[in-house]
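Worked problem 6 (solution included).
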Amino acid sequence: MKVIQLFKIYWPDNGGGIAKVMESIAECLPGWQHEVIVCQGSRQKKRRTQIYRGVLVRRCRQLFTAASTPVSLDFLRQVKKYTKDADIVIYHFPYPMADLAVLLGLPAGRLVVWWHCGFEKYAWLAPLYRPFAWHTLKKADLILVSAKGNVKNSRLLRQFEKKCRVIPFCVSDTYLQKGSAYAAGIEKAQESGESQKKTIRILFIGRLVWYKGCDILLKAFQSMKQKNCRLILIGSGVLEMELRQLAASLGLTHVEFMGRVSEKEKMRQIEMCDFLVLPSVSKAEAFAVVQIEAMAFGKPVINTALPSGVPDVSIDGVTGITVKPKSVRGLARAMDTLAEDEGLRRMYGSNALQRVQEKYTQQKMGERYREIFEKKVKETYKGLCWKE
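Solution. The predicted structure is:
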């Protein structure tokens, strides 16, 4: 079985959560042939092919970038050339160049659209882009979403509901193993009475971009009644300088901007934190893998009641607290609640780890992909046999 994935960018240039999903598909389907076609991270770079963590990555030269979209004729040529013998072509939506490729009939194989989010960021372009997105979804053999809420809350996706299949994201086996071992160690320490009063560490992980709601987080942190807290932000992005200035103007001295860190350091920070906060303000945040990464270490999560899959991952009153988006007061109150109540943190954290082990493992994700993809490919071959 040959699977080719299409998107605008991939590791190590960046890629965020979508790149993680692309990587996890290759990891949970061992023995299949995997290729990725993306653009170079900079228009100065020439076309390049490399093996990255066992996956063949074709990086296409871009002409320029417009509205966060690398424009590349080379991408179109590569899609036409290398998908000819593909069984499954996965387009990670949204990337307008891939929509153009679909419009031109370039991808071969069964077309699977992985719907990660809508296109709310560029509302002024939506009327122009929506017909292309609609055509892509119409041509798709399957549409994958990370949670039912993503279909329910999208007017566009609801038109193609029969094609939609839910495949929740997963944590890597590394996160699951290290997280489970860490949580077991903490439980032993608590039983032996070794835990002690300390500064509460509140953690945010994600790109510093508009829909993550980090300005709300900083304002809420300032408004907390519990002052024995430290806020750590991991990630970089276009708003980093603006957020640093906001923290300074609010007089926040217990805030640390760490920038991008290694996976090893990220896991270390998750271990050290008391809970994770995901203050996202738009359904552009469709799932947030970082939630299950923190939950794998037995950490409670504060998230927002977005019309997406986010509140379906960490459940309000079970694995954490869900608050109204953009509510400084609501977020501050939730952070105070967890900061003040160790027993509540412990209960939510235990439930969080159990939920990850039951629902968000690499094995379960691989079984679901294999079942769906093999069924689609068999349907193709049956159709060909029937025609003959």
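Discussion: The CA atoms of residues 343 and 349 lie 10 Å apart.
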